[in-house]
Amino acid sequence: MKKTFATITFLVLLAATCLAQASDTLWVKGLTAGIAVGPSQIWAKTGSDPAGRQNSFSLPNLKIGYRISKTVEVALLVPGTMYYYTTNGKKTDRSFEGFIPSVAFWPCQRLWILAGAGMTFDAAAFYEVKNGNTTEMFFTGGSVSVASGYTVYNRKHVSIDIQARLLSGNARLVRETRTATTLSLLAGINWHR
Fold it and tell me: Are 136 and 145 in contact, with CB atoms under 8 Å apart?
């Protein structure tokens, strides 16, 4: 009963927010680009090792796309989260990223929802690769991402938004698979023409 009430309340508030936005100033058709940064949590599991959780920083979070109508944008999303991994007693910095074609939908002017599926990249940080040692440097697999954001500022061709993003995927290592899920809270800046 509580879940049903919470769902109905959320939908009513969403509808009220959308209807209250009478101005048409945020609708921009054309090329878009964005970058976002913020805190993140990553849950990672490698092979039969127990899953671990780390607080981290989400970087890079890049987006380039095209707004094809007032409510739809197609985009290429590159979300990522830094984390550390211990192998053979040595801690190394790594990045869990995605290369994800996606579609964003605006149910109202300031609120957007995004979903996509693509490729995961699990890679060593560039400063961890020394003397050409590429052991456990770069792995790929499949991933999905969902996100939602709210535009808090808009001026001509620039907007600032607050985003929540979930990225989940796996990377095939040499002998096992690394599965990870990241949840990020981001501040983004976007350019649109």
Answer: no
Size of the chain in residues: 193
Residue 104 carries which side chain, given as an amino acid letter? A
The predicted model scores a pTM of 0.81
DSSP 172-187: E-SSSEEEEEEEEEEE
What are the structure tokens assigned to 89, written together?
A: 């007693």
Q: What is the CATH number of domain 25-192?
A: 2.40.160.20
Q: In whole angstroms, how far apart are CA 116 and each of 1, 113, 151, 162, 167?
A: 32, 11, 20, 19, 10
Q: Which of 115, 123, 164 is nearest to 144 (CA)?
A: 115
For residue 82 the two structure tokens come to: 């830094």
If you compute the radius of gyration of the chain from its CA atoms, what whole number of angstroms results? Answer: 19
* Each residue's pLDDT expressed in tens, for the chain with a length of 193 residues: 555 555 555 554 555 455 455 444 556 689 999 999 999 999 988 877 766 899 998 877 999 999 999 899 999 999 989 988 877 777 888 888 999 999 999 999 899 999 999 999 888 877 777 755 555 677 889 999 999 999 999 888 899 999 999 999 998 887 888 899 999 999 999 998 8
